C-alpha cells in the first residue's frame, strides 16, 4: 500500500494564506508613509482582489471536500 497524503489541509492552508495576502495588499496602502511605496502597492489592488477571491474559492473547495469525505 502506498501512502497518499491528504490534500484537504493543504488547500485550506493555501486559501487562508491567499486571503491574508489579498487583505494585506488591499489594506496596506492606508498605512504606508512613503509616496513611492504607496503608489506601488496601491497600483496592485487588482492582485489583492484576485488573491482574496482565489483564497475564498480555495477555502470553499476545502470545506466542500471535507464535508464529502466519509466519517470514520
Outline the structure in words:
- The chain is mainly α.
- It has one domain (13-68).
- The chain has helices spanning 8-27, 35-42, 45-68.
- α1 runs antiparallel to α3 (45-68).
- The mean pLDDT is 86.
Name some characteristics of this structure.
72 residues, mainly alpha, 0% strand, elongated
Give the gist of this structure.
The chain is built from three helices and no strands.
The N- to C-terminal Cα distance equals 19 Å
Main sheet makeup: none
Helix count from the secondary structure assignment: 3
Helix fraction by DSSP (H/I, runs of at least 4): over 70%
Q: Give the class from helix and strand content and strand pairing.
A: mainly alpha
What does the average pLDDT come to?
Answer: 86
Taking pLDDT < 50 over at least 5 consecutive residues as the criterion, the unreliable ranges are none
Q: How many strands in all?
A: 0
What's the helix-strand series?
HHH
Task: Spell out the blueprint of helices and strands.
Layout (H helix, E strand, L loop, with lengths): L7 H20 L7 H8 L2 H24 L4
Amino acid at each position: 500500500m502506498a501512502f497518499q497524503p491528504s490534500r484537504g489541509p493543504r488547500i485550506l492552508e493555501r486559501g487562508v494564506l491567499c486571503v491574508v495576502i489579498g487583505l494585506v495588499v488591499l489594506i496596506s496602502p492606508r498605512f504606508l508613509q512613503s509616496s513611492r511605496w504607496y503608489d506601488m502597492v496601491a497600483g496592485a489592488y487588482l492582485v489583492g482582489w484576485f488573491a482574496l477571491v482565489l483564497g475564498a474559492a480555495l477555502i470553499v473547495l476545502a470545506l466542500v471536500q471535507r464535508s464529502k469525505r466519509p466519517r470514520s
